[in-house]
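Dear colleague,

As promised, here are the two records you asked about, laid out in our usual form so they can be pasted straight into your sheet.

NAME FIELD: protein one
SEQUENCE, THEN STRUCTURE:
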Amino acid sequence: MTLLVSLSDVTKTYGDVTAVAGVGLDLHAGESLALVGHNGAGKTTLVKLILGLIAPTTGKVSVLGRDPATAGAAELRRALGFLPENVAFHGAMSGRELLAFFARLKRCPRQDLQDLLARVGLADAGDRRVSTYSKGMRQRLGLAQALIGAPDLLLFDEPTSGLDPASRSHFYDTIDSLRRGGATIVISTHALAEIEGHADRIAVMHGGHLIALGPVGELRAAAGLPLRLRFTVVPCSTGRLLERFGDAVEVFERSDRMLEVGCRPEAKAALLRGLGELWDLIEDVTLETPGLPAIYSKLIEREDTP
């Protein structure tokens, strides 16, 4: 696989403040990476380092085989697409005029602008002034701007901040379409529940440190969180289930007709098979797999525990 981005032991300080500390990270072509963490975790600093807007205090950043912070990196940036958290466009320009302006800056042909407007759902608003656009429409226009020239690498910094649910859904539909098309994407976000399922790997940032990196499944295993099984049973039968489970489960909640337990992921199949003749006592069973918010909380808790 082609290596597009490489950060080697990168640290960025501002006086006595360390924004990023010793981060090592590689990103390959066609991969989608989510940078997650609370505000101040170092996500935006990493995005700025990749863009070359700032240079590392120590360590090395390489993007498409070049240092993005050098004086000759303007040509490199034409191969990148960037959507900041808060887009600010001239309200007197139309959406089409604004895209044409950015296309000139990137030295890209302008004949594909209508296709870009259609791709982000603004085909019928391209000739309207940007001042008449809603927050979601301006963000979609920003996404179209980032896509000009079919860049090798796309970077999105808190792209759904302040958007309504419909606009958020539209954004992720577009991201998924780009992923299917082989785009290489970095998304910085603290919206943990949203990003799960829209990235190949998750990079967890905390206090400027990269504390975990991998697919959600690997992070779930690293966090050691149990699966939750919730049984609805005939009255007064939860005790019989617990006898059969033995020490394989942890009881979270129990009542006359309901039993919620946790078990290790690898023990799930054996636990269910072991119920045997007790299935006639069970009216319903649901399985809850820990999602990214729970995984993140556990990893942060572990990091903060002395």
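NAME FIELD: protein two
SEQUENCE, THEN STRUCTURE:
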Amino acid sequence: MDGTEDAKLPLAGMRVLDAATFLAGPFCAAVFAEFGADVVKVEHPEFPDPLRNIGVKAETGDSLTWLSEARNKRAVTLNLGKPEGAALFRDLVRQSDVVVENFRPGTMERWGLGYADLKAVKPDIVMGRITAYGQDGPSGARPGFARIGHAFSGLTYLAGEPGGPPVIPGSTSLGDYISGLYGAIGALMALRHRDRTGEGQFVDVALYESTFRLLDELAPAFSKFGIVRERMGADTATIVPHSHYRCADGEWVALACSSDKIFEKLAHAMGRPDLVRPGSYETMAARIAARDYINGVVGDWIGRHDRAGLMALCLEHDVPLGPVNSIADIFADPHVAARGTMTTVAHAEAGDLVVPSALPRLSATPGRIAHLGRRHGEDSDVVYGELLGLTAEKLAQLRARGVI
């Protein structure tokens, strides 16, 4: 995509300073970058973002996670802990719309870069702040990452088999990505408010709150009835049958019978109309009361079919059933290919890399991936020269003093 096409993207002309590390804050900024914002990634000159070293390394020396998640950003170095570095950061803020950070509360304030400090130099600045526990409260200053957010939120307690230990709910980074999305949504809402009123604000996102928000009826069920949901493995507390089942060929499928009508369709696909006769298991309440029996009947039936044949049969009866895919399955799936769920991006050193495509999909102004994550400080000279008018001599002096 060339510069003319970039100018048509919905966030073209916006500038975001990404002063965050690891994943939640940087992912928030990446959402902006995918839709046209000029995102400047700020890293310490001696201590790059640790995300560069997490996961499988590419030929560049950086991780594949970095190459994927730092997409579309310009990379500069700046020591925010030095007064000169903080001053340069405030200069960059004057020319920016959004600042994203995820240091522990009080860190940016110690450097003279808290929200009040940034608002003093740019009253309409929007500041996204993502931390484990939020900016206030008795636990606000505690360190934490997504795994801690999952545990504190109640998600980890629910993940695992009945009576077994709590396990990782799919990905240790889930809370980071969710919080990054909430951060992006919050910043866009704040920008909408700014455009109407000229007033900036900060967005306070806690990893645990982002995850907690996704736990359906957990809070009202406990508040009203004292229900403490326990680990249920692949099952769902409020729907039966709604689980994972193994086929005759050893492959797994996910079945979602979210209504009585869908269960009726399943019963006919199984050749078991007796399961939905009046007074049997035609209602969700009846099936929940007989969870083990229903799961046993459905599991036995599924276990007599190979996955391909089962999926064809369920499709014929309009029953929602899908494969439990590995990443190899995803790469081979024709629907994934047709949708363009993944994008191949060329890299001068790492070669062609396949990464998740930009989301969400917009019909008129879809996002794009212009380039993968840049080398440490690769764009420092261009950015500081372009935005702050710093000369090569000045840049050399700043480097010698460890500022950039």
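A couple of things worth noting about protein two: The mean pLDDT is 97. The longest strand covers residues 38-43.

Best,
R.
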